[in-house]
Amino acid sequence: MKPWTLQRLLITLLLSMLLWGILAAVCLMLGSTGTFGWPGDRFVLAERWKVVLMASIVGAALASAGVVYQALLRNPLAEPY
Hints:
By secondary structure, the protein is mainly alpha-helical.
């Protein structure tokens, strides 16, 4: 396995942020009644934005906790082989 270079790290981070932005925009456009489109009301957009941001933070926290536990416990499932 090749070691990470700075260029590879930056490309990975950029693509991850782009993917998160696309998913966040789709989540903001999806209504509870099944309608799809950008909300016209600022209140609705603000409430949806809070939910999407909180879900992203919780997901990132769970992912990082999983990485830390695998590193501390030296779980062999974390190895690529």
